[in-house]
Design a protein that fits this description.
The chain is of the alpha+beta class. The protein has 4 helices and 4 strands. The two termini are 14 Å apart.
């Protein structure tokens, strides 16, 4: 892909119920998590051909994220983001992924929209 081109597919606002957290009650009771994902790849083959077989299957990408978030618990949302990034890189021919994991009900005193971790990971050469 040309360095000036930054094509990406965006899956935004996915919500899942998981059992991630440092506190025992988080791992026992669970809570909602929101995930945004950006998949960086050359979209021109799919776009110019208008051919679904040349595109990333959005439903499959959603399921990959869902399996990670609803699967084995992590203590940190940073670790959850790493697992999601690794699963997406392993499942799709993408050059890079950006993953944002939001924890809207983090057990932190005060008023806030969410606590979040955001990472970018590239395919290793």
């Amino acid at each position: 892909m040309c360095p000036e081109r930054r094509d990406r597919l965006i899956l935004k606002g996915m919500e899942f119920f998981g059992y991630h957290g440092v506190l025992p009650q988080e791992r026992q009771l669970g809570q909602r998590f929101r995930v945004d994902v950006e998949l960086y790849l050359d979209l021109s083959p799919a776009g110019t051909a208008d051919d679904p077989s040349r595109a990333v299957d959005y439903a499959r990408a959603y399921r990959v994220v869902e399996e990670v978030v609803t699967g084995s618990p992590c203590r940190l949302i940073e670790a959850l983001a790493e697992k999601i990034a690794g699963a997406l890189l392993a499942s799709f021919p993408v050059e890079e992924v950006a993953v944002r994991v939001e924890k809207p009900c983090a057990p932190v005193p005060g008023h806030f929209a969410c606590m979040a971790a955001e990472i970018r990971r590239a395919r290793k050469p």
